[in-house]
Specification:
Layout lengths: L27 H20 L3 H4 L7 E3 L15 E8 L7 H6 L10 E9 L6 E5 L5 E4 L2 E2 L6 E2 L2 E4 L2 H19 L5 E5 L1 H10 L3 E5 L3 E3 L4 E3 L2 E5 L1 H9 L7 H22 L6 H12 L2 E4 L4 H10 L8 E5 L2 E8 L3 E6 L1 H12 L14 E3 L7 E6 L6 H11 L3 E2 L4 E2 L9 E4 L4 H9 L5 E4 L7 E5 L9 E3 L10 E2 H4 L3
Parallel strand pairs: 1-14, 2-9, 4-15, 18-25, 19-20, 19-21, 19-24, 22-23
Antiparallel strand pairs: 2-3, 3-4, 5-8, 6-7, 9-14, 10-13, 11-12, 15-26, 16-17, 22-24
Organism: Streptomyces phaeochromogenes
Family: Belongs to the LytR/CpsA/Psr (LCP) family.
Protein name: LCP family protein
């Protein structure tokens, strides 16, 4: 899909030169008004957001108290921690939207998405940790909000804590599991999700392979897509695209958040008080939050995010130690890797980055990692040493070349050829990405070994990297690694 259009600018009018006038007495008030106006505009621009204009912003939010009567809470670390919870809320969706975006069925009144959003103390970094909804969890003692029955601590899937005890039990359970003190609680449902995306003008998502889910109706071919709110909801809800199920869905949710940050920070919304008020007013009317998340906090967050870019955000999922951990009466759960999870949340409490420092890579993203692709290079020209140059270039970017290039039977090849078995077409496309302008030529029965026949058009090998760019102990990605290039 094409990029969102940019409104044309009116041509600048030439400035007329006027003769200097002598000072005129008695015009002090008008001069003072001009100075005051200029100073006000300067202060407004410097602050990024007009405080007076945005006073009362938090009054649109549906307030809850998720911290009521909570005791023995974790010690406060550095920075701010927001528990971001996504609920299905399909009872507030119009019948037309339900049908169009496959949102049928009754709402489950449970959490579909759970994330800890950590904003660093200097407000220069956002670390987002996804907590799988099927995580094995143990709730503290509580009163069931539906039956009124008092429960002793017992095991559940993490998303069931909301159904039993609402936001308060969800916060208590997350704090008990992570030892991270939650400062604010923000609950988003389908309605507020769609509004957020639409009021920002959509988000741009890039895919290196087709994404299709018959359950949600998602159907995205390979390429670049500008999604509206409903389409973005399909994208983040889809669980039946591949075998990764909920873990794959969380990766797409993280990519979506990176794209949303990129959209918000590049569109000028955060620098325009009127637009910021319009956007937040449309969105906040359909979210729930704790009483402490008021106008001042929202303004501070908006001001801090003025300098944000996709590289300012980092995303990871809590480390999983055991998939399919069976619990009687609950079913299959995901058991966290306790040691790695402890280190992850300690890093969060200490306000340290999750992703290691790195030099930004200009490598092109591909579906299959070059380290998984075996290649035999042939020189299809009369240029001595060309085969060795191609072989070395491919090896340098990670491809498993034979390191023994040979001469091709035909030495008059003009366009470089990637010869492959159709069963390994994804690997062939990844290899061809490293050889721009090359021709893909399928050969049945060739097997997993790719063949590159270098032609006279060869100039250089482009660096490529796998679609999954996770790094470091916590397999973290930064926003600039997952947004569209």
């Amino acid at each position: 899909m094409s990029a969102l259009p940019t409104p044309p600018r009116s041509p600048a009018r030439p400035q007329r030169q006027r003769p200097a006038r002598p000072p005129v007495r008695g015009r002090g008030p008008r001069w003072a008004m001009r100075v005051t106006t200029s100073v006000s505009v300067t202060v407004l621009a410097a602050a990024g957001i007009g405080h007076a204009l945005l006073t009362g912003l938090g009054s649109d939010i549906d307030r809850i108290d998720p911290f009521k009567d909570m005791k023995n809470r974790p010690a406060h670390g550095h920075g701010m921690n927001v528990l971001l919870v996504g609920t299905d809320g399909r009872d507030r969706i119009t019948p037309e939207e339900k049908e169009k975006y496959r949102l049928g069925g009754a709402p489950c009144h449970c959490t579909d998405t759970i994330m800890i959003v950590h904003l660093s103390e200097d407000r220069k970094r956002a670390s987002i940790v996804s907590l799988p909804r099927d995580s094995y969890a143990e709730t503290p003692a509580h009163i069931d909000r539906t039956s009124g029955q008092r429960h002793q601590p017992h095991p559940v899937k993490l998303n069931a804590a909301y159904a039993e005890g609402g936001p308060q039990l969800t916060v208590r359970t997350v704090e008990n599991m992570t030892h991270v003190k939650i400062d604010h609680y923000l609950e988003v449902d389908f309605t507020s999700f769609i509004k957020t995306v639409d009021v920002l003008g959509g988000v741009r998502i890039c895919t290196v392979k087709p994404l299709k889910d018959t359950y949600t109706g998602l159907d995205l071919p390979t390429g670049v897509h500008d999604l509206n709110g409903g389409q973005a909801l399909q994208y983040v809800r889809s669980r039946h695209i591949d075998g990764a199920s909920d873990l794959g869905r969380m990766q797409r949710q993280q990519r979506f958040l990176a794209a949303l940050i990129e959209r918000a920070t590049s569109s000028g919304v955060l620098l325009n008080p009127i637009k910021f008020r319009e956007v937040t007013g449309a969105v906040l009317g359909s979210v729930r939050a704790d009483k402490g998340l008021g106008s001042d906090e929202l303004i501070d967050l908006g001001r801090a995010m003025r300098t944000f870019s996709p590289s300012s955000s980092e995303f990871t999922t809590v480390p999983i130690g055991k998939m399919g951990y069976a619990v009687k009466g609950i079913g299959s759960t995901l058991k966290w890797d306790e040691q790695k999870a402890d280190r992850l949340f300690r890093t969060l409490r200490d306000d340290k980055p999750l992703a290691p420092h790195r030099v930004r890579s200009k490598a092109l993203r591909v579906d299959v990692a070059p380290q998984q692709i075996r290649v035999q290079v042939e020189n299809g020209t009369m240029t001595a040493g060309l085969g060795r140059r191609v072989d070395s270039g491919l090896a340098a970017t990670g491809f498993r070349t034979t390191r023994a290039p040979v001469n091709a039977p035909d030495r008059s090849i003009r366009r470089t050829i990637v010869q492959y078995d159709p069963r390994w077409d994804r690997s062939a496309k990844s290899l061809a990405t490293a050889l721009p302008g090359s021709e893909l030529r399928p050969v049945n029965g060739q097997g997993p070994l790719m063949k590159v026949i270098a032609g006279s058009d060869f100039k250089e090998v482009h660096k490529v990297r796998a679609e999954d760019p996770t790094q470091g102990e916590f397999e973290t990605v930064t926003g600039d690694q997952v947004v569209c290039p």
